[in-house]
Each structure stands twice: as C-alpha cells, then as structure tokens.
Design brief:
Distance between the termini: 59 Å
Number of domains: 1
Number of strands: 9
Order of helices and strands: HEEEEEEEEE
Radius of gyration: 19 Å
Oligomer: single chain
Structural class: mainly beta
Shape: globular
Length: 132
C-alpha cells in the first residue's frame, strides 16, 4: 500500500498522471423539460439564481459547472425545483445535484413534468434578469 501511495505522489510530481482540470462556473444552466400530457420536450435557459416556471414547476439553478473542452465532459448543477400545487402552495420537490451525462440519475420525475440538466454555458440569447 505504501508503494502505491509513493508511486502516485511521485507520478503526480513528475507530471505522469493527468491533472484534474478546474471546474468552470457558468452563468447559465440549460434544461430540458418534458410535458407528459402533450409529449413535447423543450429546452430552456435559466440564469444562476433565477427562477423559471415550466408548467407547475419552478426551476432555480444555484451553480452550474462544466470542464474545459480538453477534458472529459462533466457538467453538473445544483438545482432547486418547487411545485406549485392546485391550492397555490409552493412545495420543494427536489434540491440537489443534477448531472448532464446521467439525466436519469438525478432528474425531476413529476407526475406531469420531467426536468433534467442538459448543459451549462457562458451566455444565452435570453436577456439576463437585470436587463428585462
């Protein structure tokens, strides 16, 4: 065991092992949403800390990370999703990490709507909340 740790430390120092790339913090999260009633899938951009309504769901990304293009794509976001109930109450149904590479792993699976992370990006055609 000591030999493995020594080798890993030496290899890392000599640059033999690949370095972990820094995460890139993005101002825009891209989601896909499925309306199970109509069967329509739409894509929508949401700025970090902005809340966008998709059907009865309110989606709020808190952070959205990606990796440099030279690295394996690992896109993840911390997201909060609230449901507006029929009696107009807001109920948190999801709060956690979503991973674009595994949308089924941590997607919101609602009775009528599904929402999952598709990507993160630096800009959007949608105007930022401060410019609306």
């Amino acid at each position: 065991m000591k030999r493995i740790l020594l080798f890993a430390a030496l290899a890392s120092t000599l640059g033999i092992l690949p370095a972990n790339a820094e995460r890139i913090s993005n101002p825009v999260a891209v989601f896909s949403g499925l309306d199970k009633i109509t069967g329509r899938i739409i894509s929508f951009d949401v700025y970090i800390d902005e809340t966008v309504q998709f059907g009865a769901l309110q989606v709020t990304p808190r952070v959205c990370y990606s990796r440099p293009p030279t690295e394996a794509p690992l896109t993840d976001a911390f997201v909060e999703v609230d449901e507006i109930t029929l009696d107009r109450k807001v109920r948190r149904i999801f709060g956690g990490w979503m991973f674009a590479a595994s949308p089924g792993l941590h997607a919101v699976d609602h009775a009528v709507y599904d929402v999952w992370l598709a990507d993160c990006k630096q800009s959007s055609e949608v105007a930022p909340p401060s410019q609306r």
